[in-house]
Design a protein that fits this description.
Helices cover 43% and strands 13% of the residues. The protein is an alpha/beta fold and 451 residues long. Strands 3-2-1-4-5-6 form a six-stranded parallel β-sheet, with helices on both faces. The protein has a six-stranded parallel β-sheet with strand order 11-10-9-12-13-14. Helix 9 packs parallel to helix 12.
């Protein structure tokens, strides 16, 4: 089928590339000139495992192309995806500027294009309940074409996005037109393993399902972060708790890791949106408020712990941050816990050095010269008073800790992701502070107390 994908960010680019890889002819539309230039050269503007190879393959075989014009991309398209960003406004409501602007261009195109087939407009962006219905009725006023609108929320995870798209747990399509459902079923056919992975429902249910899924996942993380406070206080181990409750089939093991708090482009904004969706009907959603409050305080609590356990004043100390991306295997720093933690450290007067495998350029735009940017995590630790781990890049687990311990000013690690191995810390004389797990405080070797 001929497909247009409007917006080639994390979701749109993965969608466009993967749809091309299962046999569709896809035209991606990207307004950002820098990103478009990269795409036209055959490179991905984002880091996502497996994406570049697939992208280059589809470009080479002609099933994928890119441009800047929505009108042009829609000329032959039977299916048109809207995959633009829907970020949070400062008050937590959803910023619909990009979707409205793209919707207006789609509307203009529908008014000019002549075709004799049904065009299906697919809203892939995460949008407030009621958006798809509103879009359908506003487009109807102008269109000469026969068209339908469906909601098709995306559930991919950054870091495994290509795989998630090609092997979805489920595909949700919300709408009112059986014909549009049939078109979407045909489009996704190679990805549908069993009939119950293709779920159709009305627009509102599909829109709310997306927010409900992210709120549920975020709530599990906040729940475990609350448990980590009890574990710290009573000497329990939050990892044992995770295994203990996660092995119950009714609970399951996913999203039960305690840490410095969730971030990313989805959980914080979708939970905030859920609060506003509730408020819009006059309902004060105490559940989502709690998820957010816990998540915010977790970052503050982490820095307070550094302040009290460092063994010297935070002001003037050097703290090396390992990990800036909101999770491993991505360069995305949107709402990353590292942003708040670094800000609090700087406010406390610490000198901050930072390392990440993929996200350093993005974070440099936030903190410019307030932070010392380090290409090598081992060199970043030399002379530091502590390391704070904020992203669970697996490489951090295999660092030469003997050397690191010997070159730090004092060997102290605050593990905000519980990703290091305790015995390795103990063997290397490192004072180790995970979250909700027993600390290692003995064997401390302090090299100098002069600073
Ligand atoms: N990132 C995720 O993990 C994820 C997962 C599921 C759902 N979502 C949802 O998917 C949507 C997109 O998220 P994202 O992370 O891909 O955002 P993004 O910011 O990475 O990408 C959006 C892209 O759209 C482009 N754009 C904006 N207006 C345009 C227009 N008029 N024409 C052409 N291009 C335009 C932007 O330049 C940008 O490259 C959001 O609603 C988000 O909530 C994201």
């Amino acid at each position: 089928m001929d497909v247009a994908v409007i917006g080639c960010g994390y979701v749109g680019l993965v969608t466009a590339t993967c749809l091309a890889s299962i046999g569709h002819r896809v035209r991606g539309v990207e307004k950002d000139q820098k990103k478009l230039a990269r795409l036209l050269e055959g490179y991905s503007p984002i880091f996502e495992p497996g994406l570049v190879g697939l992208l280059q393959e589809q470009l080479a075989n002609g099933s994928l192309s890119f441009g800047a014009s929505i009108n042009e991309a829609m000329r032959d398209a039977e299916v048109v995806y809207l995959a633009v960003g829907t970020p949070s406004k400062p008050d937590g409501t959803v910023d619909m500027t990009y979707l409205e602007a793209a919707g207006k261009e789609v509307c203009d195109a529908l008014a000019t294009i002549q075709s004799d087939y049904l065009v299906t407009i697919v809203v892939k962006s995460t949008v407030p309940v009621g958006t798809n219905r509103k879009l359908y009725y506003s487009l109807r006023q102008n269109s000469k074409l026969e068209f339908q609108v469906v909601s098709n929320p995306e559930f991919l995870k950054e870091g495994s996005a290509v795989n998630d798209f090609l092997e979805p747990d489920r595909i949700i399509v919300g709408g009112e037109s059986p014909e549009a459902f049939r078109i979407m079923r045909r489009l996704y056919d190679p990805l549908i393993k069993t009939e119950d992975t293709f779920l159709t429902m009305n627009w509102e249910s599909a829109e709310l399902t997306k927010y409900a899924a992210n709120t549920m996942l975020a709530s599990r993380i906040s729940f475990m972060n609350e448990m980590s406070i009890l574990c710290d206080a009573y000497g329990a181990d939050v990892e044992d708790l995770r295994k203990g409750i996660g092995s119950d089939k009714r609970i399951g093991p996913a999203f039960l890791r305690a840490g410095v708090g969730f971030g990313g482009s989805c959980f914080p904004k979708d939970v905030a949106a859920m609060e506003h969706i509730s408020r819009a009907i006059g309902h004060e959603n105490l559940f989502v408020e709690a998820i957010q409050t816990i998540n915010k305080s977790q970052k503050r609590r982490f820095v307070e712990k550094i302040g009290t356990k460092l063994g010297r004043p935070l002001a003037g100390s050097t703290i090396t941050v390992w990990g800036l991306a909101f999770k491993a295997d991505t360069d995305d720093i949107r709402e990353s816990a590292a942003i708040d933690v670094i800000r609090y450290l700087l406010e406390g007067g610490a000198n901050v050095r930072a390392h990440d495998y993929k996200a350093m350029d993005n974070m440099r735009e936030v903190f410019t010269d307030q932070v010392e940017w380090m290409q090598d995590p081992v060199a970043a630790a030399a002379g530091a008073d502590a390391i704070a781990i904020l992203t669970d890049w697996p490489q951090y687990n295999t660092m030469p800790f003997r050397k690191i311990s010997a070159t730090m000013n004092q060997p102290v690690i605050f593990d905000g992701r519980n990703c290091l191995i305790r015995d390795v810390m103990r063997e290397n004389g490192i004072r180790y502070y995970p979250i909700g797990r027993p600390v290692i405080e003995s064997n401390v070797r302090v090299r100098s107390s002069s600073r």
